[in-house]
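Protein Record: Sequence and Backbone Structure Tokens
======================================================
Tokens: labelled as protein backbone structure tokens, with as many entries as the chain has residues.
Question of interest: how does this chain fold, as expressed in backbone structure tokens?

___
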Amino acid sequence: MKKKTIVSIGLSIGLLSSGIGGAGSIFEPTNVMATSKLTENIKMNAKESTPHFISGKLTEKSSKKAEDIVFSYLNAKKHLYKLSGKEAKNSFVVKEKKKDKLGFTYLRLQQVYKGVPVFGATITAHVKDGVLTAVSGTPIPHLDKSSMMKEKTVQPQEAIQIAENDLNFNPSYEKKPTSDLVIYVNENKAHLAYLVNLNFLSPEPGNWMYFVDAANGKIINKYNDMDYAKGNKPGDISGTETDVTGTGIGVLGAQKTLNMVQSSSSYYLKDRTRGNGIFTYDASNRHRLPGSLWSDTDTILNTEYDRAAVDAHYHAGVTYDYYMDTFNRNSYDDNGAALNSTVHYKRGYNNAFWNGQQMVYGDGDGSTFIELSGALDVVAHELTHAVTDSTADLIYQYESGAINESMSDIFGTLVEFYANDNPDWLVGEDIYTPNISGDALRSMSDPTSSGDPDHYSKRYTGTQDNGGVHINSGIINKAAYLLSQGGTHYGVSVNGIGNDKMGQIFYRALTQYLTASSNFSHLRASAVQAATDLYGSGSQEVASVNQAFDAVGVY
């Protein structure tokens, strides 16, 4: 969630054209089959001329397992999706299967080619009462006709070395580098490649993703997947632990109640009441993670140095509670994952980030930022990146990356309203430029006030900022604001439906319909379907979703 600091990633890439190539789409009329009364509402990906959203009554009622229903349908639609192979089931692996409170069985599938996963190519499917109701996402077509070299001459460790050489410095790794074989599509050409992940802190935090051609060792693409704000194991405590309640003063001077534990004569910022725990660490202004589990001699944390830890701990708990109370989601992975935070990272560090394992907060330099954990919407923004990583896993480039950022802004704001913590439609205003009143990192109600576009026609189309992930998030932020609050934008009037319904729609779209390479158009289709599931096809909520996306020029 970084303010307009633009960082070049070097290589201009048209990544996965089926998902990130633009918001244009083609609508096909509903096909009504008189004999079976099946319906198909098909939204096509304009670039690939294949579907990226199909909804309706797609199959007759069946007693078969949900995955069998889905594979049977995909097999019948192989020509439409342009899939290779005789059986569609050989092109996908079921990665997730759940039943939700509305009675839908939801599946997330990973496309594979000859057993190798296709990067960014995921789809979701929904079955209710034995009927397939939706298939969301665009698989990569015609992989069997690709000219990719199928013989790998580069070994996994060599791919890591190639990526490390490109960094041109010796990183201090947070976790061991990995190198996984994938099919990677770039500029409509498929490559057998290694996805190399380099996760480090020094000299600057990075979570770099490299795609190295397995045939010739060339770097096809690279980007930093670090979710900035402008896995670490829980700390071991020797001895018996007792749950206690403490108090502390936060960054902005408000008193907070804290869940802690006592062991012997020490008290720790460890909350055992939520999931597998909330843990807050002290980096002591050093370049290390996670640091030491925060401890004190009593339960009163009122010193100046305590304040960042008080807010990191308290705000993580509020964010956990929002997701549990609102969506019955148990931590970011819905399986109670521990929430680990480190404060006082480095000295005067003007940022905060989710590094794929934990939250990290700088203290700021006192001019651009104060302690970044002091803003609830910043904490909730970063932890929502973890929710996204665990669900749609949106690729952090171009339009999918902008959706990723916008989802964090949306839910960061909704957590503020949930907690009634001076809520507004600004992002990061509490900790940004303390000597300048009224400004913020971003504005959802008026993205242009912070230099971001508020309409698709004004989108950024360059390669900086990972293809505009922070910049273009303003377009979706404006749509979310209009959906909640209503208003007229570019001549389009939107009937607002309030925060609660807006949040329910975007949450369902994120967790059940968006896929790794979703673009803005696919987000619209996903939000419409989510609203249909929740409130009915003829509802005002569905009409308002369409109005909101019309207003920002996304079709």
User: Anything to note?
Assistant: Residues 1-35, 231-235 have pLDDT under 50 and may be disordered. The first strand starts at residue 25 and ends at 27. The two ends are 26 Å apart (CA to CA). The domain at 398-551 is CATH 1.10.390.10 (Neutral Protease; domain 2).
